[in-house]
Specification:
Blueprint: E1 3-4, H1 8-14, E2 43-47, E3 55-57, E4 62-74, E5 79-87, H2 91-111, E6 115-116, H3 119-123, E7 138-145, E8 148-155, H4 172-182, E9 185-201, E10 214-223, E11 236-241, E12 244-250, E13 254-256, E14 261-264, E15 271-272, E16 278-281, E17 292-301, H5 303-328
Parallel strand pairs: 1-7, 3-6, 3-9, 4-9, 5-17
Antiparallel strand pairs: 2-12, 4-5, 4-8, 7-8, 9-10, 9-11, 10-13, 10-16, 11-12, 14-15, 14-17
Helix pairs in contact: 2-5
Length: 330
């Protein structure tokens, strides 16, 4: 499997180990149990259009797997940082998780009463030959904003290409032709699997009367926002319509609680992710508190547990998407 190296050094970390010897987790073939009921009100529409048709086709589906995350905050003379990296989520594993999540999405659409157009049918429709898509190889993309940094492995289901992401709707013309030809609505979800909440905050420049800088990480598998501009914005389901696109975004995150491996910080042995969170605060060492405090975490996943919880988080995102589409269906 090829990786497109947006961050070569990071990709080397992620790919370390004997991936060929990895055993397929049983969770990939087991029924997915939602960790909690999907929230009834969790979305906000950003652009409305026609109602969704009873027939849908899904030519694009992407999962962004967090593989590293860091955050940094500072006051006038102190800095707090949190740095984390994920190991053991090998390419074969996250590809298999994505394939299973895509199948789950199709199953949930069908269960909600939608007729899902097969790949063979939509690929033969008018306009399909003009769709722009890449090879579908896993890509690593890094981004940062205001002291926070994240890197993601972008994964597409086997057999579906990677659509270019721009500030304008991609493949608008071909999708319009396909919508008319198929009498079906296009759906293109963008979901995420994060392994931790990573945060940092500064107490401001008044170091004497204000708190210092703080940074922390809390292990937990969840779907939620990533940092970056429009092109990497997750929590987006694009619905192709004759007049354009309807999109919705989700506020907050959807969690799949549970242990998924171990985390080490360079201080003592590795511990379960259930107890592996860490926080630092430059204020803790007053008087004349520390100039820098850091929290580091190297996450080593258990493939079985990680696959199970990642699928739970993705199934929740799938169900939220299906519920939103069902509400818009005419």
């Amino acid at each position: 499997m090829k990786w497109s190296m947006g961050a070569a050094a990071l990709a080397a970390v992620v790919m370390a180990g004997d991936v060929a010897a990895a055993q397929r987790p049983a969770a990939l073939d087991a029924p997915i149990v939602l960790p909690s009921p999907p929230p009834a009100k969790f979305t906000r529409n950003v652009l409305a259009g026609d109602k969704v048709r009873p027939r849908v086709f899904v030519p694009s589906y992407r999962v962004s797997f967090m593989v590293s995350a860091g955050a940094r905050a500072r006051t006038t003379d102190t800095t707090a940082s949190a740095e984390t990296v994920l190991s053991g989520a090998e390419p074969e594993l996250i590809q298999a998780i994505t394939d299973r999540a895509y199948a789950d999405f199709i199953e949930r659409l069908t269960a909600a009463g939608f007729t899902v157009v097969t790949q063979a049918e939509w690929r033969a429709a008018d306009g399909a030959s003009q769709l722009k898509a890449g090879s579908g190889d896993i890509e690593i993309q890094s981004m940062g904003d205001l002291g926070a940094r994240q890197a993601y492995a972008l994964v597409h289901p086997t057999g579906l290409g990677s659509w270019p992401e721009t500030a304008m709707p991609v493949n608008l013309g071909p999708v319009r032709s396909m919508t008319r030809s198929l009498d079906a609505t296009m759906v293109a979800p963008r979901f995420t699997v994060n392994y931790a909440y990573v945060k940092a905050a500064g107490g401001g420049p008044m170091a004497i009367i204000a708190r210092g800088a703080q940074a922390s990480f809390e292990p937990k598998i969840h779907g939620g926002p990533v940092i970056g501009g429009f092109s990497m914005e997750p929590w987006r389901v694009r619905v192709g319509q004759h007049g354009g696109f309807m999109e919705y975004k989700v506020d907050g995150s959807l969690e799949a609680p549970g242990a998924f491996g171990s985390v080490s910080s360079g201080r003592g042995p590795a511990v379960s992710t259930l107890a592996g969170g860490r926080a630092v605060d430059t204020w803790d060492n007053r008087l004349g508190y520390a100039s820098h405090a850091s929290a580091t975490g190297r996450f080593e996943v258990d493939p079985e547990a990680y696959a199970r919880l990642a699928l739970q988080a993705l199934a929740l995102q799938n169900q939220v998407a299906v519920d939103e589409l069902a509400r818009a269906r005419r």
